[in-house]
Design goal:
alpha/beta, TIM Barrel, 7-stranded parallel beta sheet, 10 helices, 11 strands, globular, binds zinc ion
């Protein structure tokens, strides 16, 4: 087997249906559907990273009404099913300032191949959902952006995570009132410094192309600053269903190449290895056009 890799490490086996039971999703059959999606998309290295807040144990880390509603699954059932499968075992952890020890107890005590770290909340307000949103009229977007990148820096430095997820998630909505009034480069600086010091891998995520902002995470300017700082990169789609695996990877690979990145991070047992970025097979244009229309992707 060639040493080249095309990874998709940040994906969710669980759909966003709160009513669905874990044992419909944490199964060998469901993982097989994701493996089929990976084969169709030309992805060579597949791993999942379920949201930590889907698991009851997360409530030992943080209490928030959103988590109280979603934390219903058993983390050890998830670990067991994925470990017995051919895909890598990851988890998407939220950085919760002040709860680092509890996070370490939950994320550091299980046989994960990697831990993806995210900032979805500032305090108890959400950046990327309308429920509990931080984006109310009274707040200054510049202030939210600044605080976001400072918190991202703390997440990188915490040592809890191997990969920094969707690094400029704060741009997700891409619309007036939620964008900064000034060039955000200065705001990026604390995060870039922390990335350089911590050596955490930076996720290039095509998920941003599905959102209001319509742009890969991170922005070209953030990416340039990461490259200058000598960062390592991971590539993912943040798929929430099998048809989203490798979502618009032709754009993701072009983005990496344009920034002179030729190697991608792979993980096993939380050890990182850099491997040459592979070449995509025949891109599935049918899938592209389905996604391009902004519709829910269908089975082929
Ligand atoms: Zn996320
Ligand atoms: Zn995710």
């Amino acid at each position: 087997m060639s040493n080249e890799a095309i990874t998709d490490y940040h994906l969710h086996l669980r759909g966003d249906d709160l009513g669905a039971r874990a044992d419909e999703y944490f199964t060998a059959e469901n993982i097989e559907r994701y493996l089929e999606g990976a084969r169709a998309a030309g992805v060579t290295d597949l791993g999942c990273a379920e949201h930590m807040y889907r698991f009851t144990e997360a409530l030992t880390v943080w209490r928030h009404p959103f988590w109280d509603e979603w934390a219903i699954d058993d983390i050890d059932q998830y670990v067991e099913v994925v470990k017995a499968s051919p895909i890598k075992l990851g988890i998407e952890g939220d950085f919760i300032a002040g709860a680092e020890e509890k996070l370490e107890a939950m994320l550091g005590s299980r046989p994960f191949d990697y831990v993806v770290g995210s900032v979805h909340f500032l305090g108890d307000r959400s950046l990327d959902t309308e429920e509990y949103t931080i984006w109310d009229e009274a707040r200054d977007p510049d202030d939210i952006w600044r605080r976001y990148f400072e918190t991202l820096a703390d997440a990188a430095r915490s040592g809890l995570f191997d990969i920094l997820a969707h690094p400029d998630l704060v741009k997700v909505w891409g619309r007036a009132g939620r964008l900064p009034s000034v060039d955000p480069r200065k705001m990026y600086e604390p995060a870039i410094e922390a990335i350089a010091e911590s050596d955490i891998a930076v996720e290039v995520s095509t998920a941003g192309l599905r959102k209001g902002v319509g742009e890969i995470y991170p922005s070209p300017a953030f990416m340039e600053m990461c490259v200058e700082a000598g960062a390592t990169f991971a590539l993912s789609s943040d798929a929430h269903e099998p048809a989203q695996i490798g979502f618009r990877y032709e754009d993701g690979l072009e983005f990496l190449a344009r920034h002179g990145v030729t190697e991608i991070a792979t993980f096993e047992g939380r050890e990182r290895t850099s491997r040459p970025i592979g070449v995509l097979g025949t891109p599935n244009t049918q899938r592209k056009s389905i996604f391009g229309a902004g519709e829910a992707p269908g089975e082929q």
